[in-house]
């Protein structure tokens, strides 16, 4: 009977020393995993921005067709601004194309250290960033849904997005949005 009582006493719980060791191990594991969670969150934010931009560009195309009013997307390095053409006063006159001074319908802001790198109308990858917070490129959608980059000719529209968080060579660093000018089809690719 004495042996059973001693055993119950040992099975009753953990000593303070054992509890402290467990707490230290949990703390070390939490500290070691924090940078991984932070990096994953940053990757996710870049992917979400690229996905949202692709969806918004598709929505602009549908709006141009549905409202019979040209739409424009002004893309800066840190944001995309969406504007509609100004309807003409007379029914027979064409609408006035949207400009930066017109009111925005929506603004999509890039997360910290995620930039829209460039927009090209020909095959290839950009050598350097052509967009800044003050300079932009404009994608125009006419009333039939045909897309074009204002001031540039080409058979394609490719938007390049760079995530500066993960580091060179990391997966999910670069994103590309392809817009087919004639069909308006928008697709997101997770690399350049």
List keywords for this structure.
2 helices, minor pseudopilin epsh fold, 9 strands, five-stranded antiparallel sheet, alpha+beta
Describe the model.
With 192 residues, this protein is an alpha+beta fold. It has a single domain, classed as minor pseudopilin epsh fold (3-Layer(bab) Sandwich), CATH 3.55.40. Helices cover 32% and strands 24% of the residues. The chain has two helices and nine strands, in the order ααβββββββββ. The chain has helices at residues 2-11, 16-67; strands at residues 71-75, 79-84, 106-109, 114-120, 137-141, 147-149, 157-163, 174-179, 186-189. The strands form two sheets. A five-stranded antiparallel sheet has the order 3-2-1-5-6, with helices on one face. Strand 5 and strand 6 form a beta hairpin. The chain starts with a helix and ends with a strand. The mean pLDDT is 86.
Q: Estimate the global geometry from the Cα principal axes.
A: elongated
Number of strands: 9
> What multimeric state do the chains show?
single chain
Q: Tell me the β content.
A: 15-25%
Q: Sheet bearing the most strands, described?
A: 5 strands, antiparallel
Mean pLDDT: 86
As laid out across the biggest beta sheet, the strand order is 3-2-1-5-6
Domain count? 1
CATH fourth-tier homologous superfamily: minor pseudopilin epsh domain
